[in-house]
Amino acid sequence: MSIKFCSLSSGSSGNCQYIETDNTRILIDAGFSGKKIEELLSSIDVKANTIDAIFVTHEHVDHTLGVGVFSRRYDIPIYANSNTWVGMTPIIKNIKEKNTKIFKTNYALDFNDLSILPISVSHDALDPVGYIIYYKKIKISVITDTGWINDNIRNEIKNSNLYFMESNHDIKMLREGSYPWHLKKRIMSTRGHLSNDAAGEILGDVLSGNGEIVVLAHLSQDNNLPELAYNTVRDGILSQGLDVDKDIRLNLSHRDKATCVYILE
Ligand SMILES: [Zn+2]
Ligand SMILES: [Zn+2]
Question: 193 CA distance to ligand 1 centroid (A)?
Fold first, then answer.
């Protein structure tokens, strides 16, 4: 009895995460074309028609582009809160009533053998959430697209076995880069995206050093570099007294390909 996690792709050009247990297969977000998601799934030997549900974090197109196509093609239910449904309907178009599933943010729901808590995050969307997924004694936290992590999120994600945590940008690269000022301001705001420094600080705070897996997520193509994200977060964790090489497993996700499939048991 195990739970598997794989980031099929993560970043501003598309997001899709895959979670599997013995009885359940879900996607968190589907921000690519239907065809691309099928390809990403087949790269880890999963057939698209075996997916049981898609859980959506927020309406931005890098999280929702393929949600509607996928639901119609494979008759898959979509789970989101009501404001996200309002925001994403123009993108995902008509969905069968039986596949329109509405949950309440900050209330856990059961889905097959999973318990899933959609937790409120801080981002410029209508009602964005991260997901905390419980399977038996195992806990996975998926927190991206948030400009701020408050104490409630810190408390809820503590004791996860796997953290899929946004590490979007290097502050200096963003400040000195080519983005227009309004976009820089948006990304740096508390309703934008988490910097490498912020990710390092938060992870240093919540990790306990018992072999947890950390996968850094939603890295910016223009305002970050994989090594820079890795090293900055590593320094942040080290400064809290944990040995990154011994106490935890720090990994990166990719913008255009799947990570390994992490198996937790
Ligand atoms: Zn995004
Ligand atoms: Zn977003």
Answer: 8
Residue 58 CA to ligand 1 centre (angstroms): 8
Please check the confidence at residue 1 and state whether its pLDDT lies above 90: no
Q: For 134-180, what is each residue's pLDDT tens digit?
A: 999 999 999 999 999 999 999 999 999 999 999 999 999 999 999 99
CA of 12 to the centre of ligand 2 (A): 8
- CATH superfamily label, 3-260: Ribonuclease Z/Hydroxyacylglutathione hydrolase-like (3.60.15.10)
Residue given tokens 């104490």 in the structure block: 151
Residues whose beta carbons lie less than 5 angstroms from ion ligand 2:
60, 145
Q: How far apart are CA 22 and CA 12, in angstroms?
A: 31
The per-residue pLDDT for range 217-260, each reduced to its tens digit, is 999 999 999 999 999 999 999 999 999 989 999 999 999 999 99
Give the ligand whose atoms come closest to the C-alpha of residue 29. 1
- CA 189 / ligand 1 centre spacing (Å): 15
Distance 241 CA to ligand 2 centre (A): 32
- Contact between 17 and 7 (Cβ < 8 Å): yes
**Sequence ranges of the domains in the chain:** 3-260
Query: Measured in angstroms, how far is the CA atom of residue 137 from the centroid of ligand 2?
Result: 30
**What's the CA-to-centroid distance between 190 and ligand 1, angstroms?**
15
